[in-house]
Design brief:
The complex is a heterodimer of chains A (about 350) and B (about 220). Chain A is mainly α and about 350 residues long. Chain A is built from 14 helices and 2 strands; from the N terminus they run E-H-H-H-H-H-H-H-H-H-E-H-H-H-H-H. Chain A has one domain: Cytochrome Bc1 Complex, Chain C (Up-down Bundle), CATH 1.20.810.10. With about 220 residues, chain B is mostly helical. Classes of the chains: A mainly alpha (about 350), B mainly alpha (about 220). Chains A and B meet through helix 3 and helix 10 of A and helix 6 of B.
Chain lengths: ~350, ~220
């Protein structure tokens, strides 16, 4: 009986093909996402030493971290910017995977894992934002959780699961705190590990299929030119250093704000969603909350999810930028992302 | 002999304590307190009676500076030094408050009886009874001003608390004092200045970048 493959040895490959290891193939986006996640775990753990998840003290403890704790501003700023950057990097990683056919068989299941990680990232950003408990989150929390109420049959139950009671109140902060760490970050961690594991199990980073033109004379496994593990680690360190420096500079020059404590009895006159949910806020202007706030986003997600199952099931073109067999999948994904970005821009400009 | 040595020891201990107490009292004295002999003749000092400048977009502490000037400064001093001899000298002919037209026994209705001492509010050793901004706010709101306790509105009391703490270096500029945040702002704990921390963060990032570049250069040369 052959030995079972080691799970941990699958997390970091011993070597990857030189062609696919080029920066202009991956842009290091998957690795940077992992780095950002690890940075979020570390800075989040540091914030836990001071954060108090209660309605009375949540905002005060964020102000304490930001203004009074030595280097607290740096820890919070890195956490904030890493969270924003992760959304962008994960979305770009998804685009790269689509454009290079990385979703094609046998990687269809891992495509779904990646999509679920995108949803996890969105929800982590939202729950993390709510934990500030300042005036800026009051509308976002009210509108965002009210969307759950609009779901037929299960709406009220889901709403109560999210906010902890029949209305936003004393239990909401601790509920979001629980969701943020144990309901989302922990499952996202396991999902991410599984995602990495599946990359290796599905044959490593997506690469070109051997053809008559590029097929090696001997067996493929021995002839593909690889970069060493040392070289791979070196490139990963390069990407990590560059990303960390950018995050530190963003934190120093654009520190995240924290406003006065949230007052749900006196909501600010203008409803404002966080930038990554501006597109949902814009959608809500065109129809009912359930249709525009729940069904349309769910439909967009479903369209993305079915790409390797219904839109492009062929393995041809994998590892090639803008491969011909994947044109429909590429067009669909680009259209969805452009739609979302256009709505965000519309909300931004208003 | 043993009794004598005990007495000497006791004398030494007492004088030692006395000099230590004197020293600590001197170090705790607020800035601007001078020995009476060095003060000269009382002279009205218009420079020290100037109202504070209020920025166009004032923060709590900026508004508190105005309230302090109008309500508190007479008793607690222009530098938060308390009702010191030196501060009273700046009032010129009204140097002796208790005989002045404002605070004598026959003061007019807008005047009031003045206590013999008003504690300093800035400087080491001041406001030692208060641990947090919430404690200080409660004191200001409930017992100030001296002649009409409880007359300050909540906003005025918050503004004054913010001004006192900012002047003491215990409240960051950006922080707004509210019921929620006042509990976490501690007195007697100066806020670390942000500038050096920012510089160090930038230096660390620069060092990281240089290290990575050196590593890349080393590989290139090899």
């Amino acid at each position: 009986m052959p030995p079972r493959p080691s799970f941990f040895l699958h997390l970091h490959p011993p070597a990857i093909p030189a062609r696919e290891a080029r920066f202009r193939y991956t842009f290091g986006l998957g690795g940077i996402s992992l780095l950002l996640f690890l940075l979020l775990v570390i800075t989040g753990a540091l914030e836990l030493f001071y954060y108090v998840p209660s309605q009375e003290n949540a905002n005060a403890s964020v102000q304490l971290i930001t203004y009074l704790v030595p280097y607290g501003w740096l820890v919070r700023g890195l956490h904030y910017w890493a969270a924003q950057a992760m959304l962008v990097v994960v979305a770009l990683h998804m685009l790269r995977v689509v454009f290079t056919g990385g979703y094609k068989p046998p990687r269809a299941l891992n495509w779904l894992f990646g999509l679920s990680l995108l949803v996890f990232t969105l929800l982590l950003d939202f729950t993390g934002l709510v934990l500030r408990w300042d005036i800026d989150i009051a509308w976002a929390l009210t509108v965002g959780t009210n969307l759950l109420k609009s779901i037929p049959l299960a709406g009220t139950t889901l709403y109560q699961m999210a906010v902890g009671s029949a209305a936003i109140g004393a239990g909401t902060v601790v509920r979001f705190f629980g969701w943020h760490i144990f309901g989302l970050a922990l499952p996202a961690f396991f999902m991410m590990v599984w995602h990495l594991f599946r990359v290796r199990r599905d044959g490593g980073i997506s690469r070109r299929l051997p053809t008559k033109v590029n097929a090696p004379p001997q067996s493929a496994s021995h002839s593909v030119q690889n970069i060493s593990r040392q070289e791979l680690v070196y490139r990963e360190v390069q990407a990590a250093v560059a990303s960390t420096v950018v995050l530190v500079l963003l934190t120093v020059f654009f520190p995240p704000s924290v406003g006065a404590p949230a007052d749900f009895a006196n909501l600010p006159p203008e409803a404002t969603a966080p930038w990554f949910f501006l597109w949902v806020q814009q959608l809500l202007q065109f129809g009912s909350p359930f249709l525009m706030g729940i069904l349309v986003p769910a439909m967009l997600l479903t369209l993305l999810a079915v790409i390797p199952y219904l839109v492009d099931r062929r393995a041809e073109g994998v590892g090639e930028w803008f491969n011909r067999p994947g044109r429909l999948a590429q067009a669909l994904t680009t259209a969805i992302l452009l739609f979302v970005v256009a709505l965000i821009a519309r909300g931004w400009l208003r | 002999m043993r009794r004598l040595s005990w007495m000497l020891w006791l004398l030494f201990a007492l004088t030692g304590c006395a000099s230590r107490t004197e020293k600590s009292t001197a170090s705790l004295a607020p800035a601007g307190t001078l020995a009476p002999a060095a003060l000269g003749t009382p002279r009205w000092d218009p420079d020290r009676m100037q109202p504070p400048n209020v920025p166009a977009d004032p923060r709590q502490a900026d508004l508190g500076a105005v309230d302090y000037y109008l309500i508190c400064m007479a008793c607690h001093g222009d530098r938060g030094q308390g009702l010191t001899e030196e501060w009273r000298m700046a009032w010129g002919e009204d140097y002796n408050c208790w005989k002045s037209k404002c605070h004598a026994a026959n003061h007019p209705p807008e005047g009031f009886d003045l206590p013999r001492t008003s504690p300093p509010v800035f400087g080491l050793g001041s406001l030692t009874s208060y641990a947090t901004a919430a404690d200080l706010y409660a004191k200001v709101h409930e017992t100030m001003p001296w002649w009409n306790p409880g007359a300050l509105s909540a906003a005025q009391a918050w503004n004054l608390t913010a001004y006192l703490l900012r002047s003491r270096g215990e409240l960051p500029d950006e922080m707004e004092l509210t019921t929620a945040t006042a509990g976490v702002v501690r007195l007697h704990a100066r806020v670390a200045p942000r500038g050096p921390e920012r510089s160090l963060a930038i230096l660390a990032a620069g060092g990281l970048l240089l290290g990575a570049l050196a590593l890349a250069g080393g590989r290139f040369l090899r």
